Amino acid sequence: MTARILDGNALSARLRESLRQRAAELSARGCKPGLAVILVGENPASQVYVRNKIKACEAVGLHSEKYAFPADVPPSEVLARIAALNADPAIHGILVQLPLPQQFDESAVLAAVAAEKDVDGFHAENVGLLAQGRPRFVSCTPLGVMKMLESEGVELAGREAVVVGRSNIVGKPMALLLVAASATVTVCHSRTRDLAAHVRRADVLVAAVGRPRMISGDMVKPGAVVIDVGINRLREGPDAGKLCGDVDFASVKEFASLITPVPGGVGPMTITMLLANTIDGAARAVAHATH
Predict the structure, then answer these.
(1) Which of 8, 224, 262, 276 would give a disulfide with 268, using CB separation of 3.0 to 4.6 Å?
(2) Which residues pair with 5 in a beta bridge?
(3) Exactly one of 7, 21, 32, 53 is catalytic; which is it?
């Protein structure tokens, strides 16, 4: 068996077409969805991510604003900008690009973003709503994974799902979404004993730990659906400089039924879900204004 490839670029393009239509409808009602992005410092990866997000906004007809601050900016200045954006009716989503420089208390900055504009889904209120099964905004990467599974008609109810990684950005919200879909969920991490034994039980495996090619073919149950969230740049060997995931694609694709590539798998879906969340925020603002 060789796995079918779950192409995030193709799915993303289809979803963005429907998002473009939704944005146009809201704009016609006088509410053009707006996203503000805050970038602090000169991190090259962050600059690329922000550029891609702004470009994606323009492509689907969203209004976007970028606020770039030097790395040594006093946190009070960034917090003042967030407060102004919270009060701006033209902005429906606020995104603070992580990581932030050392002088920042990251959790305090994320908490400063109004929960109803927190399109990244990181605010404690939105995490709590997700845990209660009443989501408002869901973290973009796990939401993108759920859309990929849905697009392929992957049955989750009663299935064994294993999430490798427990970050607040991917692992934990991913586990909550899978629980909400009635999967039986195991979360593995750096202290898990016999990782391979847990992974081998998975009907659906989500790898989100940031370690290159740590999941190998002999760890995967035949026929499993494998979602690779990791994105790592190899530092040595013949593939030095290349991007790869947390899954050893070459060996795992011989056992899996469906697999996401890196790049071109989950990555494009993350930005698409950011656009979807911003449009949802605008739609809620319209609904709120008409009641």
Answers:
(1) 8
(2) 259
(3) 53
Backbone angles phi, psi at 142, to 5 degrees: -60, -35
Other CB atoms within a 10 A radius of the CB of residue 235 amount to 9
pTM above 0.90, yes or no: yes
Closest CA to 195 of 183, 182, 186: 186
53 is an active site residue: yes
What is the chain's percent helix, strand, coil content, to nearest 5? Answer: 45, 15, 40
Out of 118, 120, 228, 248, the active site residue is 120
Residue among 28, 89, 37 nearest 61 (CA): 28
- Count the helices and strands in the chain (H runs, E runs): 10, 11
Instruction: Give CA separation, 268 vs 9, 12, 31, 120, 122, in Å.
Output: 6, 6, 26, 15, 19
Cα 122 to Cα 7, 48, 207: the distances in Å are: 27, 21, 20
For the segment 211-254, what is each residue's pLDDT rounded down to a tens digit?
Answer: 999 999 999 999 999 999 999 988 888 888 899 999 999 999 99
